[in-house]
Amino acid sequence: MWRLFAIVFAFAPCIASAAPPMTYLVSHGPAANPITALGWGLLGLSIFVAAFISLSVLIGIWWKRGRGDYDEVGWPVLSRGRNGMPWLTIGVPVSIVLLLLSAIWTFFVLGATAAPSKSPQITLLITGHQWWWEVRYEREGAPQLTFDTANEIHIPVGVPVRLRLMSADVIHSFWIPQLAGKTDTIPGQVNLAWLQADKPGVYRGQCTEFCGLQHAHMAMYVIAQKPHAFNAWWTAQLRDASGPTASLALQGQSVFQARCAICHSVRGLAGSQGVLGPDLTHLMSRRTIAAGTLANNTGNLAAWISNSQSLKPGNDMPNEDLNGPQLQALLAYLQTLR
Ligand code: CUA
């Protein structure tokens, strides 16, 4: 047992720095750092209290063994004046002090993460859907600088980003543990939050409020970039889709307009303003499809379009009954959405 503890503690820094897909053991921004410190602090305190109590019980059992001192067994501790009361008068105040200190620390963390130290220049509108995240970039007073994307949030490093969190259906919860605490998205209400990444990287998040069958397949990624890289991405996202020129992709565009456009938008494509599914204007710039469920590549796109219900049962996308040539053409068109 002790050997196991020793191994865990010896390797704890390695476990924490190995950067698993989604971790809350390390953090990389001022909206999350105080929470991570509190988490480690409370974990340490809990381990100490559990170990202390376990040790006390073991010592108590060992101490009394074979001394024939069992005359008061059966009486509650409180009425055992001779042995019980001293421990009670020590234990209760110690517990109260530890719990109070934990509460005070928690209040300080709430205060420290309530608002960023400088006013955010970027505001994102994030809407939870069953089961994906709609992300809208806006600039106040400049509607031409608005665009929608999904499930992947690009931000510049080192600056706070304000989040306006909403829901289109049920309660979801938005959580990027390395960058900020979690905030629910509630139908009919706008919840404010913020996050900031202090170093470039890809930070995974996850819906953390049970929201139906595919709750587990409702991931999102924050991609924190150096300012010039973020600006390049932002400028590219602002552009409408450039129509295809190759004949196969042009056929695919017709398939898209007939079969997909009722639910999905592609900016710049006539008749494609659907709002039920993610905006696909720059689909190929994303790493994953279906809210982090599959890597974004041609094979997975084909599988998703043909039979999304087997990959993510219950999602709103029907299985498209396309024939081979239609599917090939549609895939060729989607490849142009860069
Ligand atoms: Cu959305 Cu769980």
Give an overview in words.
This protein is α+β, with helices and mostly antiparallel strands and 338 residues long. It folds into 3 domains: 2-113, no CATH class; 122-238, Immunoglobulin-like, CATH 2.60.40.420; 247-334, Sandwich (Immunoglobulin-like), CATH 2.60.40.420. The chain has helices at residues 2-17, 33-64, 84-114, 227-238, 247-259, 298-311, 324-335, and strands at 122-129, 132-138, 147-150, 152-156, 161-167, 172-174, 183-185, 191-195, 201-206, 219-225, 288-289, 294-295. Strands 3-2-1-5-8 form a 5-stranded mixed sheet, with no helix packed on it. A 3-stranded mixed sheet has the order 4-10-9. Residues 128, 131, 172, 207, 209-211, 215, 218 line the site of dinuclear copper ion. Dinuclear copper ion binds at residues 128, 131, 172, 207, 209-211, 215, 218.
Give a concise summary:
This protein has seven helices and twelve strands. The protein has 338 residues and is α+β, with helices and mostly antiparallel strands. The protein has a five-stranded mixed sheet, with no helix packed on it. A three-stranded mixed sheet has the order 4-10-9. Strands 6-7 form a two-stranded antiparallel ribbon.
